[in-house]
Fold:
Amino acid sequence: MTDTNINTPIAPTWCPGCFNFQILAGIKSSLNEEFKKGRSKDDFAIVSGIGCHGKIFDYVNLNGINTLHGRVLPTCLGIKVGNPNLTVIGFSGDGDAYAEGMEHLIHAARYNSDFKYFVHNNQVFALTAGQPTPTTEIGYKDKITPLGVKLHPINPIKLMLSAGATFVARVYADKPQIEYVFKEAMKHKGFAFIEILQPCVIFHPDKGYKERTYSLEEEKHDKTNFDAAMKKADEFDYNLAEKIPLGIFYQKEKTVFEDNFPQLVDLKKKGIGWSSVKR
Ligand SMILES: Cc1ncc(C[n+]2csc(CCOP(=O)(O)OP(=O)(O)O)c2C)c(N)n1
Structure:
């Protein structure tokens, strides 16, 4: 019988009310939807970094690697190159993705390897008690920044668009939004960058963001239009903003990294690593 039980006996140690619970619930139900299509646990590998987000690795019973801080993307790439038939999913925090792992992020967009990458962006290094990250808003104060953050945050959506990413999305840490974007990302052949706006109930609670969000899909945003995507990315600069667009900013087809290597194309044809379903 195909093993599809992704629960683990480990009790989550996230804070009560942490929005990582929403992300976990969305990821689990999305994986269960994949299993209904006949796929099994052997078809997936997950990678997480170091931080509160990284604990997701302990709560989803799939193979993978809880890797070094900032090294989720090269680990995903390594797994994908080792077996291109695996569906590889990476999880990072904003510190993990945009500070320690920044150099990998740009190249991941450029490589377009066929894996999915979720960034739990709570705008702080949460596990180490709330230090500012590259997406913390100006004025944020903590013990190591008593005068407040002075630097302007980076804009990861614009960065990913500029670096050539083929799937660029942002959602809020709500289970249904995770399910929506997971489904869309799974359909995409190539690197999928998904930023999740994730309030940290202790160090960076929602600063009125949720009520300012709106859906790009409902606004009939053309996700094939690069210039329109850039314009939408500009609407929220990670400081206080009028409106925060959510959904898929941009999507396009481009050669997948693995398809540049005949030996990997051959492995794909043989379908090694798929327990039940061939693509
Ligand atoms: C190379 C390295 N630098 C720093 C640390 C210390 N460290 C552990 S967790 C963490 C914060 C992680 O923040 P983020 O990636 O935003 O994840 P979050 O805890 O917010 O989910 C840091 C700085 C480390 N483990 N390794």
Remarks:
- Residues 49-53, 69, 93-96, 100, 120, 122, 124-128, 133 surround thiamine diphosphate (CB under 6 Å).
- The first strand starts at residue 44 and ends at 48.
